[in-house]
């Protein structure tokens, strides 16, 4: 038991140490030792993490020459205390030889600009405590070793001058020497660099890991072996370029860096030196390429000969490669141009049937194209390339030039011919056929490889000061495919316009039914096409005919319509009868369609209430009821054709609501294309009035309500009361159609909304409603109708009125419809019951507030009773050095 009591504090201290190592402040420096070269700049980073307090931390740097844990450290520099530096380092810190460079809030670098052998030792980075609890480490130590400079870099070349003059394609080699006698195990990194401007770029390097690394611009040349780096005896590093290019002109230097492997197995560069080797000047190979002829004109079927010459200042061994190109445009690129023939550096010529290429002498190449055609017209140019041999037996391209293109025009053997256009059929009236023939005459030089096509055009007659506009009717491609224009596309599909070729030299245009829109000038264009070697066709020539005018004398259509009332006077219930007589002029074989319209009147019998289409009869004598919707009088109207130009209209069992003005609307039709009818002209007859002379009853309608202001959810009753003046009528001889409407506005400025209706047979119709309120309609007496609105809502607010249509039974037992009667509106106002609206929400709110308050009190009591502890924390110390462990 006694041993366990003695081990308990030790175990607790071990657990606290383990906890401190996993949590709390962490200060880090690089793993040592750091090997650095004398007189170079040294940078030692230090950072802190997992700390408390301000985000920006302070750092103190100290130095000791003795590598022992109990060695004395000298204060060097601090980020926050200007008096921290000891007298030994004051001059170097003030002179900026030793500085601190902050990278972030928790990271700094100690920079020693010119390290000395006396700077070898231990460097300690310390962060003052800003934590509430002391945990983790507050300093870190790294060892720095300073070695002497043993790196030597120099020029090693056979030439005494630093400027090398080379010709393009020449090989050259550059050498530099690099060695080290460092006391540490170091590796060298040798890089050859080139500058042709402001910045140096890497050519090829031998890294400190023994790997070759080409620059981005020299990767392909390194892979091909054009650029090499060789490590030779006596510490010589040679750069070899097998083929000098114009882009190789510039300055060359050798850059050597010394590397050492650190404690963490990573490579660190400890110093670097460079030496300028040479300035290389590359003279490019001069090459001129030209064609002996400039613009050339050749007749179709003849031969074309061109010669390509080149000149160069290059001496020694070289070979030339020549290519001939053809392009249809002078601005075409090499990728778009067509290669005709080529002769490589071994004088091997590519194969072609109609084109030949011969090597006349060392610098001349002759191109011959036999049996040229018009498709050979274009731009010809040649390209010469010079090649020189390399040391490994391969060939290198040193120069390449392209000549100025020469223009070649192949003149075609144009056929000669004339074009004659004749109108074989001309219309005398509209809808007559029109036929035009376009013929080729006096044709010469039209061998078997020539083909003719036609294009038809229409020209609208214009005044002399207007621009003439031609419209394409149809055209033929070289393969005789017909392409119809927009003007005649639909009519050609319907067979109204026919394009044909009856003979080899004749083309025909036929309009089956000529319309007014076809009046104008017509002409044709004959195109000649020539077959090419690849069996394609190229247009040679266009010849247009003289225009032919298609016109005929026209007169304006005239149409007269007269309506006659057969019975001068009749009463309600009798048959109304009227005839419509039609006469026309300047219309070819017309047919007529008739429409009967009526203009109804309001009660004042003076203001029209709109036109109603009753019944119609088309040009094929087909009858159609238009807006006649009276189901009880489905067969109450009849329209029939009495003669070719006379029509009769009857209306049986007329009613007082039929009063109004009746007219005949007649349309004259003339025969159109394809058996169709074309509308020619419209006519309107004089009006025939139906006016019943009667002293019948006069109906009035009013709306009453005992209560027009209600609260939401209450009931509203609206009574529609009908009164009669004049003749006394038995209730059995009267019937009413009643409809209710609402206008949700005080100013009556909105469209009325239908609510419900009750017809004279007792059938109720209601409109669909969106809200929760409902309506009902009932008859409470023979002349009184009541509308109920149940559970009123805000949407039921507004003016309400009823519309009544009386029906009266005559002495003959026929029900007659009277004029509609509209009541004056009555305003219904819907209010909100404030007490009932807020009673339940207030009760619910008070209850919820009480429950939430009680829960809050309960949670606060439990938290103070069981969950809270008093904790004493240290006062944070900013910018204060750590106390020793004995004081803690």
Question: Approximately how much beta-strand content do the residues carry?
Answer: over 45%
Corresponding CATH architecture of the largest domain: Sandwich
CATH class of the largest domain: Mainly Beta
CATH topology of the largest domain: Immunoglobulin-like
By oligomeric state, this entry counts as single chain
The SS-based structural class is: mainly beta
Total tally of structural domains? 6
Amount of helix: under 10%
Specify the CATH homologous superfamily of the largest domain. Answer: Immunoglobulins
Q: Name the average pLDDT.
A: 82
Distance between the termini: 30 Å
Largest sheet: 8 strands, mixed
Descriptive report:
The chain is mostly beta strands. The chain has six domains: 13-147, Immunoglobulins (Immunoglobulin-like), CATH 2.60.40.10; 151-283, Immunoglobulin-like, CATH 2.60.40.10; 287-411, Immunoglobulins (Immunoglobulin-like), CATH 2.60.40; 417-550, Immunoglobulins (Immunoglobulin-like, Sandwich); 558-690, Immunoglobulins (Immunoglobulin-like, Sandwich); 698-834, Immunoglobulins (Immunoglobulin-like, Sandwich). Helices cover 8% and strands 49% of the residues. The strands form twelve sheets. Strands 51, 53, 54, 55, 58, 59, 60 and 61 form an eight-stranded mixed beta sheet that branches. Strand 43 and strand 44 (623-625) form a beta hairpin. The chain is flat and about 145 Å long. Residues 9-126, 128-271, 284-385, 415-536, 697-822 form the Ig-like domain. Pfam families: V-set.
């Amino acid at each position: 038991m006694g041993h366990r009591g003695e081990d308990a504090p030790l175990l607790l201290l071990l657990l606290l140490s383990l906890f401190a190592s996993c949590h709390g402040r962490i200060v880090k420096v690089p793993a040592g030792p750091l090997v650095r070269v004398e007189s170079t700049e040294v940078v030692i980073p230090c950072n802190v993490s997992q700390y408390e307090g301000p985000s920006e931390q302070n750092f103190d740097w100290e130095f000791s020459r003795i590598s022992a844990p109990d060695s004395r450290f000298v204060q060097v520099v601090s980020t926050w205390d200007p008096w921290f530096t000891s007298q030994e380092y004051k001059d170097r810190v003030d002179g900026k030889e030793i500085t601190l460079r902050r990278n972030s809030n928790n990271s700094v670098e100690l920079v020693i600009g010119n390290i000395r052998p006396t700077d070898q030792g231990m460097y300690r980075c310390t962060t003052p405590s800003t934590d509430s609890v002391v945990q983790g480490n507050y300093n870190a130590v790294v060892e720095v070793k300073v070695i002497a400079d043993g790196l030597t870099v120099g020029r090693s070349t056979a030439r005494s001058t630093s400027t090398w003059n080379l010709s393009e394609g020449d090989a050259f080699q550059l050498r530099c020497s690099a060695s080290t006698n460092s006391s540490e195990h170091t590796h060298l990194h040798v890089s050859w660099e080139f500058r042709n401007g402001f910045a140096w770029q890497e050519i090829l390097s031998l890294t400190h890991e023994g790997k070759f690394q080409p620059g981005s611009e020299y990767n392909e040349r390194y892979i091909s072996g054009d650029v090499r780096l060789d490590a030779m005896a006596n510490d010589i590093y040679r750069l070899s370029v097998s083929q000098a290019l114009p882009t190789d002109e510039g300055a060359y230097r050798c850059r050597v860096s010394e590397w050492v492997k650190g404690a963490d197995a990573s490579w660190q560069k400890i110093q670097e030196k460079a030496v300028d080797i040479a300035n290389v000047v590359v003279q490019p190979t001069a090459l001129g390429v030209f064609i002996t002829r400039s613009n050339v004109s050749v007749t179709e079927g003849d031969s074309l000969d061109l010669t390509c010459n080149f000149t160069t200042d290059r001496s020694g061994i070289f070979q030339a490669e020549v290519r001939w190109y053809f392009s249809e445009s002078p601005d075409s690129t090499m990728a778009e141009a067509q290669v005709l023939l080529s002769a490589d550096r071994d004088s091997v010529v590519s194969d072609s049937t109609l084109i030949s290429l011969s090597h006349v002498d060392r610098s001349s190449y002759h191109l011959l194209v036999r049996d040229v055609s018009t498709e050979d017209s274009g731009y010809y140019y040649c390209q010469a390339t010079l090649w020189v041999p390399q040391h490994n037996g391969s060939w290198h391209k040193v120069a390449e030039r392209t000549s100025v293109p020469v223009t070649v025009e192949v003149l075609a053997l144009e056929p000669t011919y004339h074009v004659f256009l004749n109108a074989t059929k001309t219309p005398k009236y509209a809808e007559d056929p029109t036929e035009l023939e376009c013929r080729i005459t006096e044709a010469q030089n039209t061998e078997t490889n020539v083909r003719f096509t036609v294009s038809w055009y229409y020209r609208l007659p214009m005044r002399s000061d207007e621009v003439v506009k031609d419209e394409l009717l149809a055209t033929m491609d070289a393969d005789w495919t017909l392409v119809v224009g927009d003007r005649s596309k639909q009519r050609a599909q319907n067979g109204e316009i026919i394009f044909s070729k009856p003979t080899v030299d004749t083309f025909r245009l036929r309009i089956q039914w000529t319309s007014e829109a076809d009046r104008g000038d017509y002409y044709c264009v004959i195109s000649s096409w020539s077959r090419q070697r690849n069996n394609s066709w190229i247009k040679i020539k266009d010849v247009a005919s003289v225009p032919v005018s298609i016109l005929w004398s026209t007169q304006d259509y005239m149409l007269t319509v007269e309506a006659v009332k057969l019975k001068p006077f009749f009463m309600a219930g009798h048959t109304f009868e009227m005839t419509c007589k039609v006469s026309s002029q300047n219309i070819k074989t017309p047919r007529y369609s008739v429409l009967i319209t009526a203009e109804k009147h309001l009660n004042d019998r003076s203001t029209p209430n709109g036109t109603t289409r009753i019944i119609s009869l088309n040009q094929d004598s087909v009858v159609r009821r238009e807006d006649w919707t009276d189901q009880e009088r489905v067969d109450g109207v009849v329209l029939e054709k009495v003669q070719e130009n006379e029509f009769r209209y009857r209306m049986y069992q007329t009613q007082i609501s039929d009063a109004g003005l009746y007219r005949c609307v007649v349309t004259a039709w003339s025969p159109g294309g394809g058996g169709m009818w074309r509308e020619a002209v419209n006519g309107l007859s004089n009006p025939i009035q139906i006016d019943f002379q009667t002293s019948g009853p006069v109906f009035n309608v009013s709306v009453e309500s005992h209560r027009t202001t209600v609260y939401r959810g209450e009931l509203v009753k609206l009574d529609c009361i009908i009164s009669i003046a004049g003749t006394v009528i038995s209730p059995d001889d009267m019937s009413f159609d009643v409809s209710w409407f609402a206008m949700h506005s005080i100013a009556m400025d909105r469209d009325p909304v239908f609510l419900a209706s009750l017809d004279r047979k007792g059938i109720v119709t209601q409109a669909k409603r969106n809200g929760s309120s409902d309506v009902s309609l009932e008859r409470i007496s023979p002349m009184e109708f009541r509308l109920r609105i149940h559970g009123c809502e805000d949407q039921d607010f507004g003016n309400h009125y009823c519309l009544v249509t009386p029906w009266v039974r005559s002495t003959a037992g026929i029900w007659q419809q009277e004029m509609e009667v509209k009541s004056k509106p009555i305003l219904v106002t819907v209010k909100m019951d404030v007490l009932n609206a807020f009673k339940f929400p207030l009760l619910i709110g008070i209850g919820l507030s009480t429950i939430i308050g009680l829960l809050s009190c309960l949670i606060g009591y439990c938290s103070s009773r069981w969950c809270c502890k008093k904790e004493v924390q240290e006062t944070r110390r900013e910018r204060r050095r750590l106390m020793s462990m004995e004081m803690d």
